[in-house]
Amino acid sequence: MAQSSMAMLLIVAAHIRISWSSCLQEAIPLERRKNLIRNGTSQPLGIWNVYGQKFQVDTPVAVFQILVEEVLGYNVFVDSRGTGNMAHAFYALAGCEQPENAQNQSCTGRPTKHHVSMALHLSNNISARHFDKVQRMKMGGMLEDLGSVGFVSQSGIQISSSTLQRGRESSDPLFLDDFRSYDSRFHSPERFFQDFRDIDKNLLLPCRAWDTDPEMPFYFNATGDAEGFNVNFSRAECFGGGDGRWWLAPSCRSNRRCLPCITGSSDGKWAIYPVEIMQKAAIWRMPLALGVAHYNGSSAFKELVMTYRDVLFMFWAPSVEFIEISPVFVRFPNFNFTQWYNGIMASTRQGEYPRHVVSNELMAMAPDARVMLQRMKLSSEDLNRMMLRSYSLYAMDPCFSCAAWNGACAWLENNRNVWMPWIPQKTACFAGQGMYDEEKGEFVSSRSNSVTCRACSPGRFSSLVVDKDGDTAECRLCPMGSAQASMSAVKCDMCSVGTYASEEGKTECHRCQRGKYQENTNSFFCSSCPTGMTTWMLGADWAGECRCQEGWYWINGTFNCSICPMGMSCPGDHARPLQDAGFWVEPTIRSVDIWGTGHWQELWGGPFSVFQCRDALQCPGGAVGLCATGREGRACGSCITGFAAQFDGTCAKCGGQSLWPIIVVLLVVVGALPLALAAGIFMTRARRAALSIFMVSIIFGQVVVCLQALDAIYQMDITWLDPAKAILQSLAIFSFDLDFSCVLPPQDFVLEYVVQLTAYPVVVLVTLLIWLSMRWSRTPVSFTAFVNVHGLLLVALLTAMTLAIVRPLQCRNNPNRLFTIASRPNIICWKSQEHQTLVVLAAAGLVAYPVTILAAITYLTRKYPIWLRSGGGIEVMERYRFLFARFRPERYYYGLILCTHNLTVGIIPAALVSFPALQVGIMGIVICLKLIVQILLWPWRLDIANYNDLALSAGLLILLLLASPLLNIDRAETLTFVAILVSIVMIVLPVVAMFAALAVVMARLRPQSKYAAFLCHHKAGAGALCRFFKLVAKKYVKMNIFLDSDELDDLARIFDVVRADTKCLVVVLTAELLNRMWCALEIASAHKHQVPIIPLYCDDYAFPDHDSIDVIESVWTEEQRSTLISFGTSMDDIKEAYKAASKLRAVKLKRRWSLEAQEDAVLKVLSVLYDRQIAEVAPAPAPRSANVLVCVAEQNEAISGGFILQQMVQRYLQSVTFLVRSPSQLEQTKAMFALVILSKGILEDASFAQTLLAIRKAEISVVTTNDGSFEFPSMEFYTQVEEGNLVIPGICSNMGPAIARAYQALLSILALPITPHASMSILERQVHQICQRFGTWEDMEERKMSKVSRVPSDSDKRLHDEIERTAQDPGQEASELREGREAIKTSEHFET
Fold it and tell me: How far is Cα 1077 from Cα 93, in angstroms, rounded to an integer?
């Protein structure tokens, strides 16, 4: 490796030394010389000197180098590593990285660094074999032979010029360059040569050291000389004993007058051409003694010849080795091929013309250099002159490359006439070339200063042209239908059959793609196979290779292909199409006239009619028309008579297991509904114990609704997988999608559908008979319970009913463009009489069930607030507790939302059956909206129900998302429709957002009043009344009323509210109102800013006259008057406002009036405010229907507080609540609780005392509240009442003991606070605590039923008699009183 690197350094150094100077005067300067460019790589022109630094080849290399550098202008690199091995040159030109490595030349296809190698011998078998090997490395070859160098390379017997000259100049001249002069019979040539015995034998190899020459037998065969040849050892018999050095020819073997002839050896073993020399000597009687010089490279052989010059020697020419003695060949007869072929070497050895070999890349990179090398011819005389000149220079400067270059330069200077024709004219292009414009970088068709010649690139051919300047060539594009892959082409190859070239300038013809063919040559296109047909291979060359492509099928008798319908698999070619799993293909058989002979034959083939089956298991994949076991008919939609459907898609013979759907339905009708009715009875009789049943029933109902939604999702066009598919299939019972083939006539879907529609009326009839039978039993059931049970069923099963009813309308499009019912694919929609009948029945079912149910629920929900306001309506509302009782009171409307959601879920599968993607999308939106509404409203009474509903809805949504990848959305119209909807949504959303923002801005900018009315009142005199006013107004209309206890957080803002944020000021006129400073400011502010004022005269209020108004300031202190002035209101403003208010139309209200009358007064105020009739007053509840009684003192504010409590408790409990004003209202009451409001003076109220006694007599539980004004009496008070010393107007003195006991029992109950004049939030919390005293709604129902059904016991009768007796006997002993009290407590405890 180190030696190779050193050699490369020496070569580079020599090259640099030469490059310092130029040879020719017109030489192109070094800086203007260019490299070769190939694939973006720049490199000098590389020369591989195969013989290394030897003058005989180095001198021609130098000539080529000088001309390429100085005339053509290329940079040149000469690699002189050659050792004479031709194979190394071939591998170097091929781009191999290690050309000298015989085991691995590293030929990787990289661009070569060597482009030219000169004087190569190709006739040698080894050289020819390597040349062919390198050529086969690449299509088209890698090397190019440019022809002879010009001189002949010849080997033979030579003689020095001096010896030859002495022979010619002797007295008996001999022409020693002629073989005939050496005939020993006629001539004595030995006188001119050295005696062979005088030559130092140490310079010669012993004969025994000569290696066996395979040509030795030729000598014996040609000469018959057995003496000079050792046949056994195939070796010459040398004279001189075992240490002999010379092989003597026969003609001098006896006299020893032999001429010395020296030859060399190869590697010290092989003698060079000994047989040829000795054959010539024997045949032509030449007295030669052959000696072989020692091997020491060529120096020992040269030294021997140069020492003993008068000798003959075997060598080749031209050569620089013996240039000093100017050797001349001894001429023999011309080469005789036949003799040499037969091993007779008497004639001259055949000479060889060394060749110029270049890389085939040279033509593309430097075509002018290639042409010049091709023209470069050197004669032997020219070469000898150059070598002689170089040798003389080498003696002065021992640098082979420098000497060769100088010798070549000298020859070039003196022989311009020889080498000038070698230089190609710049624009005179040869065959394989074309004119190329260097500036434009393209081939051209006319000459110019920038035009040179360049080899035609692939895709072009060279066309010779003649112009005014002579012959040249241009590179033209290959026409369409032809191509050329090689460079320097003179023609383009026509495309063969099965190929084409669609453009000009193609480097290759492309094979016809699959589905095309070409039967002609020279084509620029391929013909397409008929529609639906293709070829199985590329390059089809006739139409018969077209076959049906995959996805198409062969139509027998037509010799055409038809596209494979959806639901079928078509393997192509002539194979029969198959139906896919889940599809059923109606077999088609046609009669065809075979070849027009009149012979008709039935053939299978299209067009096929494909139906989509309900389930892939019912229609297995395979031959057309194939059904699962036991199935028949269109789309395998029916079971064979006597068979029933199975879960695996097949049908089996009817048996006990086949009747399970019917049995389940019967169990539901006969067993489940009576159980539900019995549960309703149980719940009405033991509500507290049945609270857990109520909770479980709500959860169970939610689960049932969820399962129905799952059934709806299962009916979507989704490819469900097991085990989810098996689970969803079991939900078919909810939508009554059962198989009745073992009970009803098979394939009679109309009858099945009629049975499904009439199933619920049958259920109603059965339960009605059960209810009627229980009417005469000991435990009768109310009609309300009957209605609630069926209402609960209808609401819970609304989705299932909808799914079952719309099933005939769920028509799915099939691949054959026919619509069939999704659940009964054997029924064609809209066209068959059967389906038309089903549509009529479905329309009737929709009206009878979903539409009627939803309309009824809408009506009930709309009437709910009215019934809640009305006492009579409460009773009606209890009948529909199935709709309202499950939800919080303020979310009573959620039942309508839930039913609408359930109905929508049931309609989606049928309404969007043709758009599977929309089915999933809309279903997801509906479930998501329901989820959002449920979260926002939190509607269920029980928190556990809210959480359960939330979890079920989220689960449905997650299931829908997970199932969406299984959706069948292969239809393009579905995708287009979904894309349009998505685009609409994307457009609508920002538009809606923009309008919302605009609405908010407009609402902000538009001046409007925040409050519809401002209640101006005296808190002590009308605080509770104003709260009642606001409650009544909110009950009838949606309006915002300002009440200071709710709204006021800053006293200074109250006048800004009156001035700017109030539409009307309602002045609630009570005795002290006009004397209140703040009320005066409110009235004055409203009058001053022209805010309408509506006076409300309470009780028997009379407005003061003008004189009283003029002295109104006397009611205020000086400080109060200053305060009035500080708010910008003068006394005159107040007086003016009072006087104006006194003239206004007023509304009267007396707090002793009934609830209807007081509500009517409030509505009159609202009618004045809105200038229209607001609403009709709702009737008040009847006392006998009330569940809760409210008892108050007959005082104005106490009565208003009682009405407030009555309204709020009734709304909270959804139970009839009545304000008791007299004991007579308690007759035949069924109330369970009495709610007593303890207020100031209530114990001195005779009406209250009598009412309390009636409550105790009716055994009604009591809950007490305290409005804050009540003060608990002392024990002395009870004594005075018992003894009759405390006079209560309207109460007889003999009733004192009973009243005392009643008061003591009343006040022993813990009273809850109630503040009617407080804020609404405080009041609602107080009412909530009060209602908790009553227990749950179930507790109230339990008490009510127990009270109705309980027969008074003897102890109860004795207790009442004792109470009556005590009331008549005022002198009863205290002990008796105590016993009565204990009995009352015991009775109350029993009730609790």
Answer: 121
Please list, in sequence order, all residues whose beta carbon lies within 8 angstroms of the beta carbon of residue 107, skipping any fewer than 6 positions away: 91, 94, 95, 96, 97, 137
Strand ranges of the sheet holding 1013-1016, from the earlier edge strand across to the other edge: 1041-1042, 1013-1016, 1065-1069, 1093-1098, 1147-1149
Contact 803, 909 (CB under 8 A): yes
b/e for 247-284, b at 16 or more Cβ within 10 A?
A: bbbbbbbeeebbbbbbbbbeeeebbbbbbbbbbbbbbb
Q: What is the pLDDT of residues 475-522, one digit of tens each?
A: 999 999 999 988 888 899 999 999 999 999 999 999 999 889 999 999
Query: Would you call 1285 helix, strand, or coil by DSSP?
Result: coil
Contact criterion met (CB below 8 Å) for 1049 and 1101: no
What is the C-alpha radius of gyration for the chain, rounded to an integer number of angstroms?
64
Q: Are 1132 and 1140 in contact (CB under 8 A)?
A: no
DSSP string for residues in 365-419: H-HHHHHHHHH----HHHHHHHHHHHHHHHHHS--HHHHHHHHHHHHHHH-HHHH
Ranges of H-type helices in 624-672: 660-667
Helix (H) or strand (E) holding 1264: strand 1261-1266
CATH homologous superfamily of domain 2-152+354-423?
Periplasmic binding protein-like II (3.40.190.10)
Residue-wise DSSP of 519-563: -SSS-SS-EEPSTTEE-SSSSB-SGGG-EEPTTEEEETTTTEEEE
Helices (H), 1171-1274: 1196-1213, 1246-1257
Identify whether the C-beta of residue 372 lies closer than 8 Å to the C-beta of residue 67.
yes
Cβ-based neighbour number of residue 1046 at 10 Å: 17
Q: State the CATH architecture for 1181-1392.
A: 3-Layer(aba) Sandwich (3.40)
**C-alpha to C-alpha distances, 569 to 563, 565, 611, 972, nearest whole angstrom:** 10, 8, 14, 20
At residue 374, φ and ψ (nearest 5 deg) are: -65, -30
| Residue 946 structure tokens | 């809210």
Strongest mean pLDDT among 234-243, 295-304, 611-620: 611-620
The whole-number average pLDDT for the span 576-603 is: 69
Distances (CA, A) of 511 to 460, 501, 1031, 1382: 20, 9, 92, 117
Is residue 629 within 8 Å of 651, Cβ to Cβ? Answer: yes
pLDDT, tens only, 888-921? 877 888 889 999 998 998 888 888 887 777 788 8
What gap in Å lies between CA 146 and CA 273, rounded to an integer?
Answer: 30
DSSP 1298-1341: HHHHHHHHHHTSPPEE--TTS-HHHHHHHHHHHHHHT--HHHHH
Beta-carbon count within 10 A of 1203 CB: 25
State how far the Cα of 834 lies from the Cα of 754, in Å rounded to an integer.
13
Query: Cα dist. 1080→152, 1054, 1067, 1085, 1384 in Å?
Result: 143, 12, 10, 8, 53
The number of C-alpha atoms within 13 Å of 1177 and in the hemisphere containing its C-beta is 17
**896's tokens:** 């309508």
With b for 16 or more beta-carbon neighbours within 10 A and e for fewer, the 648-659 pattern comes to: ebbbbebeeebb
- pLDDT tens profile 1227-1277: 777 788 899 999 888 888 888 888 888 888 888 889 999 988 888 888 888
Cβ neighbours of residue 802 closer than 8 Å, sequence gap 6 or more: 849, 850, 902, 903, 905, 906, 907
Tell me which fold the domain 1010-1180 belongs to.
Rossmann fold (3.40.50)
435-440: list long-range contacts, CB under 8 Å, 24+ apart: 435/472, 435/473, 435/474, 435/475, 436/475
CA distances to 285, 313, 337, 349, 350 from 333, in Å: 14, 18, 12, 10, 11
Whole-model pTM: value is: 0.54
The single-letter DSSP state of residue 69 is I
Q: For the chain, how are helix, strand and coil distributed in percent, rounded to 5?
A: 50, 15, 35
